[in-house]
Every structure is written in structure tokens, then in C-alpha cells.
Design a protein that fits this description.
Pyrin domain-containing protein; DAPIN; mainly alpha; 6 helices; DEATH-like_dom_sf
Length: 148
């Protein structure tokens, strides 16, 4: 399954194509643009909207191949600036993409829901920093801090 990030970048890159350029892009997909990778079936992309075309490309190829095919097709069309934009947008997002998530879900920080509590059985006497790990517990609400 393709990541949402790749699909989003492909859509944002290809939305700069006009209707005729989209047809040419689809033609390149049908002809095949990468050696060793099969061309797409005519019925999968011909006459499809941009969204449908991108979905078909992502379903047909894995993420890396979908990007490579798109980049190569754009280069063959003379759209080198769009091909560079595609790579730049993907490279910019690499350091931030840790995993692929369902785009329907949104994650918002909720610091009030979890509180991290560190406990140690060691006396609170000045000493060297402890070695090893301390037990960590998560609780729905903060526990009152113990004063020594």
C-alpha cells in the first residue's frame, strides 16, 4: 500500500498539468517509461481524472517506482521543472515522515491526558546520577508530586 505522503506529493506536482499535458502523461504511462517495469494498461489511465490517474499509478507500482515513473514521464514530456519539484517535495518530507498513517485520522497533542511519573526507591540524598533505567508509569491524570 502506498503512503499518503507519496500520493499527496504526486497529486500536488501533477495538478500543474493542463488537460492536454495530463493526456500526454497518461500516454507515457501506457507506453512504459522505466526499463524493467511494465507499462500500465490503457484502460487503467486513459480518460481518467488526475486523482484517478494518481490512484492507479500508486496501486500499480510501489511508492519508489511510482515516483520514478512519474519523474521519468515528466522528463520525457519536457516538464523538467515539475520533475525537480516532485523530487524536492519528497526530499523535504523525508525527515518528517516516520510512518504511513490513515489520512482520515488526525493526531493532536493532548498533554493533559497523560502525565509521566518517574519514581525511584533511592533516598533523596545528593549523590551521583543514577545508572540504569527508572520505572515509568503513565496515568490519565497527574499524580500529586511527593515532597521530601
Amino acid at each position: 500500500m502506498a503512503s499518503f505522503r507519496v500520493q499527496e506529493v504526486l497529486l500536488r506536482t501533477l495538478e500543474d498539468l493542463n488537460a492536454e499535458e495530463l493526456k500526454r502523461f497518461q500516454w507515457h504511462l501506457i507506453q512504459g517509461v522505466l526499463d524493467g517495469k511494465p507499462p500500465m494498461a490503457k484502460g487503467k489511465v486513459e480518460g481518467r481524472s488526475l486523482d484517478e490517474t494518481v490512484s492507479q499509478v500508486i496501486q500499480f507500482y510501489d511508492d519508489d517506482t511510482a515516483v520514478d515513473v512519474t519523474e521519468k514521464a515528466l522528463q520525457r514530456m519536457g516538464q523538467t521543472q515539475l520533475a525537480r519539484k516532485l523530487k524536492k517535495n519528497l526530499d523535504n518530507g523525508k525527515s518528517f515522515t516516520l510512518c504511513s498513517v490513515n489520512p482520515a485520522h488526525t493526531f493532536k497533542p493532548r498533554p493533559h491526558l497523560y502525565h509521566m511519573t518517574f519514581r525511584s526507591d533511592r533516598p533523596s540524598v545528593p549523590q551521583e546520577p543514577p545508572t540504569g533505567t527508572l520505572p515509568v508509569t503513565f496515568s490519565p491524570t497527574p499524580e500529586p508530586l511527593l515532597s521530601s
